[in-house]
Write a structure and sequence with these properties.
Elements: E1 11-15, E2 18-21, H1 22-39, E3 45-49, H2 54-65, E4 69-72, H3 79-89, E5 93-97, E6 113-117, H4 128-135, E7 138-143, E8 153-157, H5 158-169, E9 180-183, H6 190-203, E10 206-209, H7 215-224, E11 229-232, H8 234-246, E12 257-260, H9 267-277, E13 282-287, E14 291-295, E15 306-307, E16 313-316, E17 321-326, E18 338-340, E19 354-364, E20 369-375, E21 379-382, E22 385-388, H10 389-397, E23 402-412, E24 416-425, H11 433-441, E25 452-455, H12 469-481
Parallel strand pairs: 1-10, 3-4, 3-5, 4-7, 9-10, 9-11, 11-12, 12-13, 24-25
Antiparallel strand pairs: 1-2, 5-6, 7-8, 13-14, 15-20, 16-17, 17-19, 18-19, 19-20, 21-22, 23-24
Helix pairs in contact: 1-2, 5-6, 7-8, 8-9
C-alpha cells in the first residue's frame, strides 16, 4: 500500500523540538523496506512487538509499503501470552525492542530494536488460523482487547483499510494537508494508527506527540503549536479539564477539534466542557473488526457519534442492535456475532457474505445520526427476569463511597445468571458489604443486586478506555479452579 504521497520538507511528525519531515520519514521507511525485502518473507507476515514510538510507526509503514501483513502485539501482554499469539499467527519475521517489554509512558522518538526470523518446532502443525490468515491476504492482524471476554483474532485486508481512509477523508472536519493533529492515544492501537496517524500522513498533515501525558505539557502544545485536531479518550479529556479552564485566557480563541473514542463519553464531562470552555467533544465510534463506523469531528450533536460512514452497509435488527455487512468474516475463527448470509456456502475458499453484529444497541434520529445506548450483551436473564448490567453499574457508582465498579454476569444452573461486582472504594473506605447490599435494596429490585462483591485496586481498561472484563473474569476463573 502506498500511504504517503508527500515527500517534501513539510513536517510529518513532531515531538517536542524534534521534527521529522516527509522526506526524512520516507527515507527511514525506505531503509526498513530494503531490510524487509532482503529477509525474503515467505508468508508475508510480520509481527511488531514494539512500544509506542517513531520506530513502531516507521516499521508499520515499511511493512505495508512492502505489501506485508503486520500483527501488532500489545505491550501489556506477558511473554507467555505473546508466544501463544505468535504460535497462532505464525509470522516468519518479528521486530522487537531490545529494551524488553513494557508500556512506555508516552510516545518515544526511537527505541532500540532487533529484526529476527521466527522459528517453530517442526512437529508443531500449522494451525488453521495461520493458514486462513495467509490465504486471505490480510494486511493487519490483531487481537481484540478482550474487554468482553476471550480476545478474538481479527484480520483486515488492504482494500478495507484503503476504503476506510478514503471515506474518512470525506468526513466533515477530517484532518487535511493543513492539519496539525495532537495524538494522545497509542499509535500501536487502531484509533491512533489508522485514524489519527496514517490518515493524517496520507493527507499531508502533521502529527504532533506530547513528550509526556501530563496536563500542563499537553496544554502547552495546544497554546503554542496551532493544533487543529486532538485525538484522545475520556481519560485524557477528564485529565485536561482543569488545566484548560485555568489557562483558557492564554489559549487560542478557537480550540482544536477534540475527538474521543474507546467507549461512551460521560454526559457530565461533556456538559463541563460546554459550561466551562464553551466547546464540545466529538466522538468516534468503531470496532477493530471494521475500523471507524461513525464520527462527529465538530461535536454537532452532543451524545451522538455521527452518521454511519458512507463506505459501510448496515442494518439495525429488531432488538436495536447495529450490524455491519461485510464480504467475509473479520475473524480467523468462528464467532457468534458473525452471521453468514448463507451458512451452507461458507468456506475458506469462498467466504460467504454476512453481517457482523456489533453488539451495540443504538438509536438513530430522523437525520440518521447514531447514538449508542448500550450493549446487547449487557442484558441478561436472572430467574426469567431481564436485567441490564449497565443499570446496576450506574446505581453502584451513585454510592458515595464507591469510586468505580464493574459488574459481570456468570452462568448459573438454576437462575440462568447471577451478578458479581468488582468495586473500587473511594478515599473513605467503607467495607461492610451488608450495608452496601442494604443500600442497593433501596435502589434496585432484589434480583438485580450482585450476589458477591470483590474489592480491587482499580478497574483495568484498555489504552482506548474500554473496561477489560476479560481480565476481571480471570480472577473468578482462578478462584473456582483453586
Amino acid at each position: 500500500m502506498k500511504l504517503m504521497t508527500r515527500h517534501d520538507d513539510h513536517s510529518a511528525v513532531q515531538i517536542g523540538s524534534w521534527t521529522q519531515s516527509y522526506a526524512e520519514l520516507q527515507s527511514a521507511v525506505n531503509d526498513k523496506m530494503e531490510l524487509l525485502q532482503s529477509l525474503d518473507s515467505k508468508t508475508g507476515k510480520v509481527a511488531l512487538d514494539l512500544p509506542d514510538s517513531g520506530t513502531f510507526l516507521e516499521w508499520a509503514l515499511a511493512a505495508w509499503g512492502s505489501e506485508l501483513c503486520i500483527m501488532i502485539l500489545d505491550q501489556r501482554l506477558t511473554e507467555a501470552e505473546k508466544q501463544a499469539r505468535l504460535l497462532q499467527y505464525r509470522p516468519d519475521i518479528i521486530i522487537c525492542s531490545d529494551a524488553g517489554a513494557g508500556i512506555a509512558p508516552a510516545f518515544q522518538l526511537d527505541v532500540p530494536f532487533q529484526v529476527r526470523p521466527c522459528s517453530y518446532e517442526e512437529e508443531a502443525p500449522i494451525s488453521n488460523t495461520a493458514q486462513e490468515v495467509e490465504h486471505n491476504h490480510a494486511a493487519l492482524v490483531l487481537f481484540s482487547s478482550g474487554s468482553t471476554g476471550i480476545p478474538k483474532l481479527i484480520k483486515r485486508d488492504s482494500a478495507a483499510l484503503l476504503a476506510e481512509w478514503s471515506s474518512y477523508s470525506e468526513e466533515d472536519g477530517s484532518p487535511d494537508e493543513h492539519a496539525r493533529v495532537l495524538c494522545l492515544v497509542p499509535v500501536s492501537h487502531t484509533f491512533g494508527l489508522v485514524s489519527a496517524v496514517v490518515h493524517t500522513l496520507r493527507r499531508g498533515g502533521t502529527i504532533v506527540f506530547p513528550e509526556m501525558i501530563k496536563p500542563r505539557a499537553i496544554v502547552d502544545i495546544i497554546a503554542e503549536q496551532s493544533i487543529t485536531h486532538m485525538y484522545g479518550v475520556a481519560f485524557h479529556y477528564q485529565l485536561l479539564l482543569t488545566e484548560l479552564e485555568q489557562r483558557r485566557h492564554a489559549l487560542p480563541c478557537k480550540l482544536p477539534l477534540m475527538l474521543c473514542s474507546g467507549g461512551p463519553l460521560p454526559a457530565q464531562l461533556l456538559q463541563q466542557y460546554q459550561d466551562k470552555l464553551h466547546v464540545g467533544i466529538g466522538q468516534q465510534y468503531g470496532m477493530s473488526e471494521v475500523g471507524y463506523i461513525a464520527v462527529d469531528f465538530r461535536a454537532l450533536q452532543p451524545g451522538s457519534v455521527g452518521s454511519i460512514a458512507s463506505h459501510l452497509s448496515w442494518m439495525i435488527d429488531e432488538e436495536q442492535q447495529l450490524g455491519i455487512q461485510l464480504p467475509c468474516s473479520p475473524y480467523v475463527t468462528q464467532q457468534e456475532n458473525w452471521i453468514p448470509h448463507d451458512k451452507a456456502s461458507s468456506s475458506a475458499a469462498q467466504p460467504a457474505e454476512g453481517i457482523l453484529l456489533t453488539q451495540d444497541v443504538v438509536e438513530m434520529n430522523d437525520s440518521c445520526w447514531l447514538t449508542i445506548t448500550g450493549r446487547a450483551n449487557d442484558l441478561v436473564s436472572i430467574g426469567g427476569l431481564k436485567v441490564k448490567i449497565t443499570e446496576v453499574e450506574h446505581t453502584l457508582r451513585g454510592h458515595p463511597d464507591i469510586h468505580d465498579c464493574c459488574v459481570v454476569a456468570l452462568p448459573h444452573p438454576i437462575y440462568g445468571h447471577i451478578l458479581e461486582a468488582f468495586i473500587v472504594w473511594g478515599p473513605e473506605q467503607w467495607q461492610s458489604f451488608e450495608q452496601l447490599t442494604h443500600w442497593l435494596k433501596q435502589h434496585l429490585a432484589d434480583y438485580k443486586i450482585p450476589r458477591k462483591f470483590r474489592v480491587v485496586e482499580h478497574i483495568p481498561t484498555s489504552a482506548a478506555g474500554k473496561i477489560l472484563k476479560g481480565q476481571l473474569m480471570k480472577e473468578i476463573a482462578y478462584e473456582r479452579s483453586g
